[in-house]
Specification:
- The structure is a single chain.
- The chain has helices at residues 3-6, 25-45, 52-59, 63-69, 73-99, 104-121, 146-161, 167-187, 196-214.
- Helix 2 (25-45) packs across helix 3 (52-59), helix 5 (73-99) packs across helix 6 and helix 6 (104-121) packs antiparallel against helix 9.
- The protein is 64% helix and 0% strand.
- It has one domain (3-214): Orthogonal Bundle (Tetracycline Repressor, domain 2).
- The protein contains 9 helices and no strands.
- By secondary structure, the protein is an all-alpha fold.
C-alpha cells in the first residue's frame, strides 16, 4: 500500500450536511459556490457571526437556495469544515508524493507543512477549528475527526518507516496532532501568513515529543 493510499479521499467533498445529494453538474457547482461564499464570509466575520443570509448574499443566491441544501448556518459550517479537512488530507498526499520523505519525521513534517500552506492559501481554512458541542457527530463522519488522521498517519509510519504500530502510536500521534492544532491556530490568530515563531515552535514541540518515544534516526525501509 502506498503512502497516498492511506490518505485517500475526495479533496472537494461537498459535505455530509447537505439536505440533498447533488446529482447534476449544476447542483454540484451551486453547492461549491455556496461553500466558497461561506469560506469568504468566515474570513470576514468569523464563524461565530456568520449567517445564512450572509452566505446567500456573497454567493449571489437567494436565501431559499441556501436552505434547499442546508437546514441552518451550523450545517453550512459543518459542511465547510468537512471540505477543509478533506482538502488538508489531499494536501498531505501531495506533499508526501512531492517530497519523498526519508524518515518518519519527514512524513510528519509534511503534514505540518500542508496545514500551514492551507492556512495561507485556502479561504476560510480556520473553519477546521469550528465545533458545535450541542450537536452529536453526524453518522459516517468519523473519518473527519483528528483520531482518524492519527490512525492513518500511524499506518504510514509503521508500514513505511518501521515504527512500532498499534494503540500507543495512534495515541501519541493524536496527542501530537492536538498540540499542533492548538499552536498553529495561535500562529494564525492575528497574522494572515502565520507567526513564524509559533510555526517553528510547533515543529520543535512535535519533533521533541515524538523523538522521545521513537528516536531521531529511523529511516525509510
Amino acid at each position: 500500500m502506498s503512502l497516498s493510499d492511506l490518505f485517500g479521499g475526495d479533496p472537494v467533498v461537498l459535505g455530509q450536511q447537505a439536505r440533498i445529494e447533488p446529482t447534476q453538474q449544476r447542483s454540484t457547482a451551486r453547492l461549491s459556490g455556496l461553500l466558497d461564499a461561506a469560506a469568504v464570509v468566515v474570513d470576514e466575520v468569523g464563524f461565530d457571526r456568520i449567517t445564512t443570509a450572509m452566505v446567500a448574499e456573497r454567493a449571489g443566491a437567494s436565501i431559499g437556495t441556501v436552505y434547499r441544501y442546508y437546514p441552518d448556518r451550523v450545517a453550512v459550517l459543518q459542511a465547510l469544515r468537512e471540505r477543509a479537512v478533506m482538502r488538508f488530507r489531499q494536501r498531505v498526499v501531495d506533499q508526501l508524493k512531492t517530497s519523498g520523505p526519508e524518515t518518519w519525521w519527514d512524513a510528519v513534517d509534511c503534514a505540518i507543512t500542508a496545514f500551514v500552506d492551507l492556512y495561507r492559501s485556502e479561504a476560510g481554512f480556520r473553519i477546521v477549528h469550528f465545533a458545535d458541542r450541542e450537536r452529536t457527530p453526524v453518522s459516517g463522519s468519523e473519518d473527519l475527526q483528528s483520531g482518524y488522521f492519527a490512525r492513518q498517519l500511524a499506518g504510514v509510519l509503521a508500514e513505511e518507516f518501521g515504527l512500532t504500530g498499534g494503540a500507543d502510536l495512534i495515541f501519541r500521534l493524536e496527542v501530537a496532532v492536538e498540540m499542533a492544532d492548538s499552536i498553529l491556530s495561535r500562529a494564525f490568530q492575528t497574522t494572515p501568513n502565520g507567526d513564524e515563531r509559533f510555526i517553528a515552535e510547533c515543529r520543535r514541540v512535535m519533533h521533541d515529543y515524538l523523538v522521545g518515544y521513537y528516536g531521531p534516526s529511523v529511516v525509510a525501509v
